[in-house]
Amino acid sequence: MEIQREMEEALRAYFEAPFPEGGLFVLGGSTSEVLGERVGSRPSLEVAEALLEVVLPFLRARGVHLAVQGCEHLNRALVVERKTAQAYGLEEVTVFPHPKAGGALATLAFLRMEDPVMVESLKAQAHGGMDIGGVLIGMHLRPVAVPVRLPVRRIGQAVLLAARTRPKLVGGARAVYTREEMLRKLAEFS
């Protein structure tokens, strides 16, 4: 299936750069947008299944935690494994996604994960993620998000955006931000 090839290519490109083992990756996606329709207008369990057949084993093999964002009808609550909720101190909420409230992707993620729970928020702890179709995952990312340019710009008909985060740069005029700069300053001092 073409969308599976696109998803795998996007994930491979994204994970060429280091990602923390045990890090948190958020995936938001509109299966309607993948099909070329307006978000929420044509949820597809088949599209969701095709995407998750690629995403779940790919991330598991890398030791990366996955959070799948639901749609606005669940206030963008997320599906995570119970161990992810525990590792990140996330509060479980009671709601079950379905294609018209939560979306097809969140619904299938809930059915395919080993021990899924729903959480209301990631508390802005995600190290990065992908947004398929403009579903707005930014609220779940750590404060300094950096866009990732991928060779794959679309999954099906949906626009694909990706981001990763980095620690904040702090300090003033004398601060340095790389190890090399620090060593150069140290050599100048000696």
UniProtKB/TrEMBL annotation:
- Residue stretches spanning the membrane: none
Q: Which Pfam families match?
A: DUF436 (PF04260)
* Alphabetical list of InterPro entries matching this protein: Antibiotic_NAT-like, DUF436
Q: Which family does it belong to?
A: Belongs to the UPF0340 family.
Q: Which HAMAP family match?
A: UPF0340 (MF_00800)
Q: Specify the protein name.
A: UPF0340 protein THFILI_10480
Q: Which organism was this protein described from? A: Thermus filiformis
